[in-house]
Amino acid sequence: MTGVSGPERSGAGWSGGAGISATDIAAALGQPSPTPAQQRVIEAPPEPALVVAGAGSGKTETMSGRVVWLVANGHVRRDEILGLTFTRKAAGELAERIAHRLAVIDEYGRRGLLPHLPEIVADGSLRRVDEAVPGRQRELVRAHVLDELAAHRGTGWDPVTPRAAEDLMIRPRVSTYNAFADGIVREHAARIGRDPDVAMLSQAASWMLAREVVLRSDLPELENIDFALGTVIDAVQRLAGDALDHRVDLDRAEHIARDQALAFEPYRGNADVEKAAVNLLSLPTLTRLVRDYIAEKQRRGVLDFADQVGGAYDIVESAPDVRAELREQHRVVLLDEYQDTSVIQTRFLAELFRDSAVMAVGDPHQSIYGWRGASADNLYAFSRTFSSTAAAQTYSLMTSWRNDRGILGIANRVLEPLQRPGLDVPPLEPRPGAGEGTVTIEYPFTVDEEASAVAEWFAERRAAHDARSAGESPGAKPHTGAILFRSKRHMQTFAAALAARGIPHRILGLGGLLATPEVVDVVSTLRVVHDPTAGSALIRLLTGPRFGVGVADMAALYDLGRTLSERDPAMAPLPEEVRARLRSSRGADEAVSIIDAVDVVRAVRDDYRLLESITPDGRARVRAAGEMLERLRRASSQPIPELIRLVELELRLDIELAANETRGPARVAATQLRAFADEVRAFLAADERGSIGSLLAWLDKAESTDELMPRPEPPEAGVVQLLTIHGSKGLEWDAVAVVRLVIDELPSRVSDTSGWFGLGVVPFALRGDRDALPRFEWDPVEAMGDEADPVKRQKLAQASLSGGATKANPRGGAIKRFKDAYRTYQQQEERRLAYVAVTRARTDLLLSGAHWAGQKSPRTPSPYLVEAIEVQGLDEVEAVDPDDNPYDGPGSTLRWPLDPLGARREVVSAAAAAVDDAARRGTAEPSVELARLLAERAARQRGTDADAPTRVPASRFKDYVTDFSGTLSSIVRPMPERPYRQTRLGTLFHAWVEQRSELVGVGSRPDEALWELDEDEIASEPAQATVETREGAAATADAADLAALQATFERSEWGGLQPIAVEIEIDFALGAGLPSSEVAGSHIVICKLDAVYRRADRGGRIEIVDWKTGKAPRTADEREERMLQLALYRLAYHRRFDVPLEDIDVALYYVADDLIIRGDRVYSEEELFQRWSAARAAR
């Protein structure tokens, strides 16, 4: 390690400055004094520097200390400092910490005390400040002490002098890497021919777009790619991302792949060579799809984040003036989490800040995001990347301020095999006064016993923490804990064990949530609603706790489905020839639809012959399920989050979870469902046109991969969080259990060692981090040597390529050597994952595994667990009999359907009996809280007593007459309306029709949107809008859809007609003209007529047309309700222009569907008034 040291060298390399040391600044701030290693980093000279910062080593505190030291000494202005990190959360925390410290330093600066700071610290003048209670009291004491010091030293401090604008407005810039690049592109987009206002694609949106491109492709070469659809989509998305991150020339990649496949051609008799050749030859097809993906992004006006970084790189590379301006603006640069930067980010930053005061902070052993573009080699290559003159200074921060000693011992042992030349990474050191901590190791027989042991361990840790809080450490923070997994596979098993112990817990991340029972039920219901072939999902619902259909009835229901598959729509049997062909076809099983069978049970009478094998109770349960599904299908056009909430209510999950004592209090019982809803909203925010189908496709993707990180969430007090190791980085808990430390889980099995011979992988020679990747080396000419026999020459070349390990060649052929090297490369990231997991624990660490978890042979302990056992001095884990598999027996006998209460049956039954007994004896009295809840429910059931508003929009008349109380409640307690896209599109279309007619309507009022927000337009909105991320894409989609509506209108019967009026408003008092009505109780109906025509082809009759851009009504009742609005329009026109009602025609035109609905029935004013009065009286 190199670098300056000691306060006497403070500011070395900087010109001028106040000469204040980092230790004096820390004392002035009331912060602990930095360690010598931290001081060297804080006071580093203005040249490229790399800081190797171990886990929990206080790098954020050190970076903020460097910023404050630079500003306090006057080396740079505060707005000349740039800090970059990866997440908005991290950027916000760093910016807040810097701002707080600069505010305190400004207190000294405004009083002229900074030049005197060393003397002030040395003579103890700040002792009173340090002794004050932190918070407001310390702030007041500090202000008083500093006022005294300013007066004593005669600095000329005037308390009434206002603060300088620089102190108030100018501050260091702290941003994310992507946001910084995005700002450059938006300001200079014209230099690279790009629109500055484009939307960014999230990971979900990018995958959905790639899926759409693949599904839409008609490339015949796709038939030669023998992989599942999801694998091809993943390959396209990965190839597109790598091409951006490494600035790959796709034509050159194709050329390299073809040449290598050609070289392999004579040796394809070997399976490994054949597989590699096929994958290489498929690369041109995948690059075609990548080009289609890129073109589709351009068409939609959207970008990946790598596009923005690449665009920023293009700008600074080609525009020296922009580069010079940015270097002048940012004289000091701090790069946080540098080990997680991608190749394109590194190149961009190096092009911009090479040879400047740039300091990268990172830990090569925490580089765990290789699957999303991060390069573990970036730290090792920092010096040659950012310094063109001499080697960059290297510093290290290895004192852990987080972990106790025992935990550090395990972490350092895990790190030993990762040491490599080129960068000195010392072991982690304990902080002064660090405790010993506890490290526990468990390796029971089965994974269920492992989960139980983990739950017991957390119960003990929580109890010990509570005891300390009540005794020697009163007022201590609530306990925090986490279980960390390499994959989500067994997450639900451990959650169930925590629930059995009554320990509050929460699963983080979409992948883990998809295994929780309540989320599985919701997703299964969505599948059934969307897909009529989703029989397995329906079986889960029918046999689950909501309906509890028995096994005999399920068998009969399947038989009914098979019978229906052999009948025509009229229920007549198909000809025997057709049935025979169906039975012999590959799709015979798919032809049986249990969903159709449920619909038939719901639709026919009990005495129908085909239902005789289903019990009466079974028919009732199946019928209830069918009715529920029909209700959900009718509601499927609602926004998806609302549909999901409806599914929860239909399945009664809210009640079930609130009543489940193992889920904790009712307020947290549905936490998993709420977290799932949040994940769905995040997906919909990325895809404005998100449908149930696209959501289910994304959920399938999330369920099949462990590479989706949970949204960052801080530790939750009193709750054990379950998440993947990838999602835990940057977090810490009091107690952490790292589970499933067995070979093939942690470390995970390396499933693909093909390297660049895999499907859709960029040739390693074209990657920016190629120096860190294994190289494929094969020379068939050298292998053949001087052999003249063609057959022997072929065998020698074949062996040199695909041969296995032999005595003569112990490392095997070129492919085996390459695969072994690539396997080792991937296993290094597994070890880094283990290191990250271990260092999340502050005081208590549990490492666990188990011999059996459902597989055919016992699991072997992970090498990381073996190393921990060695450090702890424990006995090694003894092997077990491979034939003693507890999961490989004759099975157990269960009662069907399963008891939904399970092991809770006894407890719940006893509680229910106690309630029944109290009710019979009449001694049950509700608690104060329950009494209030019951009163609230009674008030809600009574409905509102408010009167309907005087002004009633015609578009809401149908709502009043169908649900007067509900409509009135929505007005009395209005909910904020989202900016529905369909409503926006309708507004654009109406404006176009008005402009096209060359007539002038009545204009718009501020409240017009409230009057004319039609239900059919709202219902078709698929997702919530996220304006800031989707404005560009939304505008493009709006333009395309508006053009389609315009073309349809031009072809309609009104396309060639000229209206006599457009967008006219007529208000009238409903019932005011009737002799029996009371004028005082009448209401003003607001009618806004879209267009009025005088139809010459109908004898000059008046026709009122209402344009609709939403979904058309599907049932006769819905049509009648829609026509009530037109009936009011007819009455309004009659009242205003005295045209007989019989001479006025009305029509609804659903433009998107090119559907015309005409109302032949003429409602009189009396009829309309009676419907209003009846609805009002019945509320």
Automatic annotation (TrEMBL):
Positions contributing to ATP binding: 53-60
Domain UvrD-like helicase C-terminal: 405-730
Catalysed reactions, as listed in the record: Couples ATP hydrolysis with the unwinding of duplex DNA by translocating in the 3'-5' direction; ATP + H2O = ADP + phosphate + H(+)
Keyword Transcription: no
EC assignment: 5.6.2.4
Record-level GO BP terms: recombinational repair
GO cellular component: cytosol; DNA helicase complex
Keywords: ATP-binding, DNA damage, DNA repair, DNA-binding, Exonuclease, Helicase, Hydrolase, Isomerase, Nuclease, Nucleotide-binding
GO molecular function, one term: DNA binding
One Pfam match: PDDEXK_1
InterPro entries: DNA_helicase_UvrD-like_C, DNA_helicase_UvrD/REP, P-loop_NTPase, PDDEXK-like_dom_sf, PDDEXK_AddAB-type, UvrD-like_ATP-bd
SUPFAM superfamilies: P-loop containing nucleoside triphosphate hydrolases
Transmembrane segments: none
Residues of the UvrD-like helicase ATP-binding domain: 32-404
Protein name as catalogued: DNA 3'-5' helicase
Native source organism of the sequence: Microbacterium maritypicum MF109
